[in-house]
Amino acid sequence: MYLRRNSLRKTLARILLVVLVLFSTVEVLHVRQSLARAEGDSTAVHAPGPERIFIAGIFWNNEAILRSSLNAALVDLVEHLGPHNVFISVHESGSWDNTKDALRELDEAFERIGADRRITTSNATHLDEISVESKGEGWVDTPQGQREMRRIPYLAKQRNIGLEPLAELAERGVQFEKVLFINDVVFSTEDALQLLDTNGGEYAAACSMDFKNPPYFYDTFALRDSEGNEHLMPTWPYFRSRVSRDAMSRYVPVPVSSCWNGMVAMPAQVFTGPSALRFRGIPDSLAAAHLEGSECCLIHADNPFSRSKGVFVNPRVRVGYTSEAYEAMRNGEVTLSSIIIGLRLWENRIRRWTTTPMLKTRAVASRLQRWYEDDPTNEEPGGFCLINEMQVLRKIGWAHV
User: What is the predicted pLDDT for the residue at 124?
Assistant: First the structure.
């Protein structure tokens, strides 16, 4: 009897092992087919469309990447789109390297090709910002007993300066179809065109994927999957939610709740008119509960089209914060071996089975609830953006406190 039971257990174990191997093989083959299609599509030539594009960027201490690649990439993109179809708005503030000189060179390059633009610079440093006497809105009392300037409202202000020409042009009847936000990244014209064409151009927002230390995804502060969860793992397929994970495995536009990730396209209409969107931070009273949310996440929470048109990560558009990172990831995902694909799929599966976002979100949810109870008029649509952090500006960069 014992021998028969032992034999039955071994037989069942073998059957289970065979089923798992077959399941994993089919799963990996499906992913590889999708990756192969993505590689083929990436060679397609994208003709410039009739849309007018407003390009916006804020830069700080970015001389190196501006001079090594970004200036040339921006000029190439504008020439491809047609200078008459583009307005470029760039804002810089308080850099201590030669970012201002690099932007003057960019301004001269745009002048040569006849591109309309506004490139502004400011000598106000972080030290100037945090040394003001008035410490009202945008400041918070930290656990160290000091009143310090919050990082996110400061960043939101800089981004909104970059949007000012868009509103001014709209008042004069000059309209744009898309706003393309570009961070300090290495990218190509093909990357930008493919991003703009995400989902056939129908979206509330479309984001690239960004990398600094490949193969690890970089900007996770603003990224939330279709269910509002933070990323599950720093490598492919990244997400916890089935909808986001499955789309990533098929290499089609990935539905998410929020993203930014180096380069973002959004409809220009949401930034003009009487209900124009602007970047913001969470209220100071909520930040005082040791909470924070990225301005680049909150913009999607505030966007009325996020639910109806969707927010997407385009897995075919990969940018880098260095040339090395860009080259490593430009075609890196399509060269993943079958073994690595299988291992990462199982890593994702095991992480989902053994972890829960509730452990991280419980403290955030309870503090947010207390904030609602303290004042019934309090409102924060970007609850899914919140994390258990307090971020303040310092004379050199910023800090967690």
Answer: 95
DSSP state, residue 276: -
CA distances from 152 to 71, 225, 281, 283, 287 (A): 26, 21, 6, 11, 10
Count, residues in the chain: 401
In angstroms, rounded to a whole number, what is the distance separating the alpha carbons of residues 166 and 155?
18
Please say whether the beta carbons of 314 and 206 come within 8 A.
yes
Shortest CA distance to 196 belongs to which of 356, 312, 69?
312
Helices (H), 219-322: 242-250, 284-287, 295-302, 306-309
Q: Has this prediction a pTM greater than 0.85?
A: yes
Whole-angstrom CA distances from 125 to 31, 57, 63, 280, 396 are 48, 18, 16, 20, 9
- Quote the CA–CA distance of 81 and 52 in Å, as a whole number: 8
What is the CATH number assigned to the segment(s) 53-400? 3.90.550.10
**Mean pLDDT of the region 66-75:** 98
pLDDT tens digits along 280-313: 999 999 999 999 999 999 999 999 999 999 999 9
Query: How much is the pLDDT for 26?
Result: 72
| Domain positions in the chain | 1-41, 53-400
Tokens of 36: 């192969």
Burial of 188 (0-12, 13-18, 19+ CB in 10 A): middle
The amino acid sitting at 189 is T
pLDDT tens for each residue of 50-59: 689 999 999 9
Place of tokens 């071994």: 10
Angular region, 225: left φ>0, alpha ψ -120 to 50, beta rest: beta
Three-state DSSP at 224 gives: strand
Question: Torsions phi, psi of 131, nearest 5?
Answer: -100, 5
- Structure confidence at residue 115 (pLDDT): 98
What pLDDT score was predicted for residue 382?
97
Number of Cβ atoms within 10 Å of the Cβ of 97 = 13
Considering only CA atoms, which of 358, 371, 365 is closest in space to residue 388?
365
pLDDT value of position 39: 64
CA-to-CA separations, 65 to 2, 232, 269, in angstroms, rounded: 70, 30, 31
- Confidence band of 28 (pLDDT split at 50, 70, 90): confident
